[in-house]
Specification:
Elements (H helix, E strand, L loop, with lengths): L1 H25 L4 E12 L8 E2 L4 E12 L6 E16 L1 E3 L9 E3 L1 E22 L3 E22 L7 E5 L8 E11 L2 E8 L14 E8 L3
Antiparallel strand pairs: 1-3, 1-12, 2-4, 3-4, 4-7, 5-6, 7-8, 8-9, 8-10, 10-11, 11-12
Length: 220
């Protein structure tokens, strides 16, 4: 199963890079597409009833329009994108996601997570060093599309293994913002980002301020 997933992921990335390069060529480099794969580390306050897993994988994709900075190869870019952040709890689950203020309930879980999906508006500065190296930094505003939760395990203590999904979390913050940085060689870059607003509304859930770190792909 894992081998098949890796093959599928590789094929998807190859197809993505090919399409992104085609768009870049047809627009004379004024339009860029990219894809980031990262893990989130929570820098917010520790919560009493749960702890997050060390690896909280997420991803993002985006398209930007690049405005040249004078006669140089540097650009300022404005675009739109989509990002997904997953937070995996250890031995806890979200039993009442529709409550005004949410809490995580201790339980014997095999898998438990909350997921936040955003539409992003990024603004970044791209500095090209020679022809193969590029450094980018910027900020983005993210608008919540959907927040959901999923838990698999023995949440009710009845000996039965349950799988429970909820499609909404009322306490999720609707607008968040943050900063990001990329350093790349050719089409591969390292990515780091930080979110300044908690994923949950103040006083209505745990403080989750993700520091994201991972790798990205986009034509240079």
């Amino acid at each position: 199963m894992k081998k098949g997933f890796l093959i599928l992921l590789t094929l998807m990335l190859v197809s993505f890079v090919a399409k992104a390069q085609l768009i870049k060529d047809r627009t004379n480099g004024l339009v860029t597409m990219g894809f980031d794969l990262y893990t989130d580390i929570n820098t917010g306050n520790k919560y009493d009833n749960f702890d997050l897993r060390s690896i909280n994988q997420g991803f993002g994709t985006y398209i930007t329009y690049n405005f040249p900075m004078g006669e140089s190869k540097h650009t300022v870019s404005l675009g739109a994108g989509y990002s997904c952040h997953n937070y995996y709890m250890k031995k806890a689950w979200l039993a009442e996601p529709y409550a005004h203020a949410i809490e995580f309930t201790p339980a014997e879980t095999k898998k438990s997570k909350v997921c936040f999906n955003y539409m992003d508006i990024p603004l970044e500065v791209n500095l090209r060093i020679a022809d193969k190296f590029k450094i980018s930094f910027g900020a983005k505003v993210s608008f919540l599309i959907n927040a959901n939760s999923k838990a698999i395990g023995y949440m009710y203590g009845d000996g039965h293994k349950w799988e429970i999904k909820y499609n909404n979390i009322n306490a999720a913050e609707s607008i968040v913002y943050g900063a990001f940085f990329r350093a790349g060689y050719r089409c591969v870059n390292v990515y780091a980002g930080y979110q300044f607003i908690s994923s949950f509304k103040d006083g209505r859930g745990p403080q989750i301020l993700p520091f994201s770190i991972g790798i990205g792909i986009r034509p240079y």
